[in-house]
Amino acid sequence: MPNFVRPVALAVAVATTLALTGCGAEVTSQGGQQDAAGDHYPVTVENCGEKKTYDKAPQRVVTNDVGITEIMFALGLEDHMAGYVMPDDKGDLTSVPWKGGYRKTKWLSKQGINKELVLDARADLVFAGWNYGFNEGDGFTPADLEKVGIGSYLLSESCRNGQGKARGVMAPLDALYTDLRNLGRMFDVEDRADSLIATFRKQVAEAQAKALKGADRPRVFLYDDGQDKPLTSGAYAGPHDIITKAGGDHVMKDLKDSWTTVGWETVVERDPEVIVINDYGDTGADRKRKFLKSYPPLANVSAVKNDWIVVLDYADLVESPRNPAAIASLATDLRNFRY
Q: What sections of the chain are H helices per DSSP?
């Protein structure tokens, strides 16, 4: 069987996506309907269970990580950004639909986000997430930013659900659509958001219509990294919706968390027929694949034995505007696997 490698799943509906640069929100305006003069503010949105009110659109947003940054670019909000933070291991950024955003917006750091950086950038809002920049251990949390007068917006995929530090309060694609709507409301670009979401829903529906169904659905495991214990996706991280809507049976769908670790014995027991590798970082897809193929406990796992390993890019799998194209790409791979 062949090994499918798709570093960036962006081929589907790129032209349409490029034409759309906005979003809306499932939120209400303070004081009711906009009046005839277009009085949009103040507006209130709900973010990870907390209501936040904006008297005007933030003007100097700092984003952390590629998916979050591209959500802003997909909405055409570059002019509202002070810059973005991400490592330089996120693939080729010159060929994505939002390459113009990368050209126009300052790359503030490749080393990680912190309070000093956002203060130096004169940020009025930080768009990040739990384990996507925000972390108590680093002393960089929304509460820390509030103390110095900087607002925050949390990536909905990263919302904590009250069970320790477990993350996830809604289906992954719902998290993407929620953030697009909220940001559309915050920045007064609701029409753009609505159009973008409609395009994404259509793209996903078309992929699902062609996807494998019923007993034909192969068992699929997402491998992010890790050798002693694999880091994988539970029900609340992007790969869950990407796998299931592409026609796969996500073997870790019972994990009520987003990105989390499991034991290799669980992987062996569930015997995935296809493994999707998350490609990023110093340990890229080739090294991850070599490990999977050489690790003795996995020798009889169907995906390893038959060499059915698919590669998707990190930005395809975290919450981002690349998720719908990743579903279409994986749906094709899974059909090739079965037929």
A: 14-19, 66-74, 99-104, 115-120, 142-147, 172-186, 190-210, 238-245, 264-270, 285-294, 302-305, 314-317, 323-338
For the entire predicted model, the pTM comes to 0.89
Beta bridge partners of 313: 279
The 10s digit of each residue's pLDDT in 186-213 is 999 999 999 999 999 999 999 999 999 9
Q: At what angle do helices 172-186 and 66-74 cross, to 10 degrees?
A: 50
Count CB-CB contacts under 10 A for residue 44: 15
Q: What is the DSSP string of 42-103?
A: SEEEEETTEEEEESS--SSEEEESHHHHHHHHHTT-GGGEEEEE--S-S---SSSTTHHHHH
User: Using H for helix, E for strand and C for coil, what is the string for 94-136?
Assistant: CCCCCHHHHHHCCEEECCCCCHHHHHHCCCCEEEEEECEEEEH
Task: Note if the bond before 97 is cis, omega within 30 degrees.
Answer: no
Output the CA angle 272-278-279, nearest 5 degrees.
140
How far, in Å, CA of 115 to CA of 162, rounded? 26
- Tell me what pLDDT residue 31 has: 37
Residue pLDDT, tens place only, 13-43: 443 444 444 333 333 333 344 444 358 999 9
Cross-strand partners of 140 = 135
Q: Which domains does the chain have, with CATH numbers?
A: 14-200 (3.40.50.1980), 210-338 (3.40.50.1980)
Q: Which residue has the tokens 């659509």?
A: 177
Q: Please, is 5 exposed, middle or buried when counting C-beta atoms within 10 Å of its C-beta (0-12, 13-18, 19+)? A: middle
Q: What is the pLDDT of residues 213-225, one digit of tens each?
A: 999 999 999 999 9
> What are 196's two structure tokens?
């973008």
Residue matched to tokens 């975290």: 318
